[in-house]
Amino acid sequence: MTRPQDPFDDRAMPPPADPWATIDRPVPTVYLGNPDTTAHVVPPAQRSAPPPAIEVRFGPGVPVAAPSWPTAPAAPRRPRWRRLVSILSSLLTLALVVVVGLYLWQRLSPLVVESATVAVPKPAGNSCDVTVNVVATVHTNGKSGTIRYQWIRSDNPPSAVLTEQVGSGQRTAALTLKWTFNGVGTTTETATLNITEPTPMQATTKVAYRCRR
Predict the structure, then answer these.
(1) How many CB atoms within 10 Å of residue 190?
(2) Which of 21, 84, 119, 184 is the most buried (most CB within 10 A)?
(3) Quick one: pLDDT at residue 206?
(4) What residues form the membrane-spanning segments (predicted)?
């Protein structure tokens, strides 16, 4: 409705806005190009002198290309004679270690006297003015060392300290006492082996003498 004093406007009025016009509309699709297109990404710091760029592919079914890293060159093989020399050197070193170990084991392991016996292998019988051999047999643990001992006769004071050297692997040692008898008569004496080192020990036997003229 218009009033007579108002100027007449013959322009058509725009239709009223529909408040439901923007609801349930599909989101517009933005196309960035072909999905199989290859894009080259270059870091900004390397754009002045571009090195080989990492290639990144986009799109379904396109494998990702892994960068190739430089491999270290293979070490050159040693000549056969050098390997032989190295093996021989190792064997000689092992043999030297074994020899030194055995030597130290022999030196550090002490000699031990395990037992001792004294006997008269050949008695005097009824002979006169004879010399009787009294023999002591000493058993050891086979180590090298020195046996210190003395003979004690029933008719004399103990003798001076004597020594007997035994080597490695020697498990027995024979110690001999020569006892001389003179005159007419009958007697029975004793001979005692007294070991002072390395293991204090004693062994005794009887010595008989008979002389009838």
Answers:
(1) 14
(2) 119
(3) 96
(4) 84-105
pLDDT reported for residue 30: 46
Quote the DSSP letter at residue 125.
Answer: T
**Contact (CB, 8 A) for 150 and 185:** no
CA distances for 196 relative to 47, 112, 149, 163, 205, angstroms: 97, 12, 5, 10, 18
Element (H, E) at 87: helix 80-108
- Contact of 113 with 139, CB cutoff 8 Å: yes
Residue 208 phi, psi dihedral angles, 5° rounding: -105, 145
The token duo for 49 is: 């002198």
Which residue bears the tokens 């020195």? 146
Residue 87: CB atoms within 10 A of its CB come to 10
Q: CA distances (Å), 208 to each of 122, 153, 202, in order? A: 11, 13, 20
Query: pLDDT averaged over consecutive 10-residue blocks of the chain (213 residues)?
Result: 52 59 52 52 53 54 57 67 86 89 74 96 92 97 94 94 94 96 94 96 96 86
- Residue-wise burial string across 134-145, b where 16 or more C-beta atoms lie within 10 A, e elsewhere: bbbebebebbbb
Task: Tell whether the torsion through CA atoms of 126, 131, 136 and 142 is positive or negative.
Answer: negative
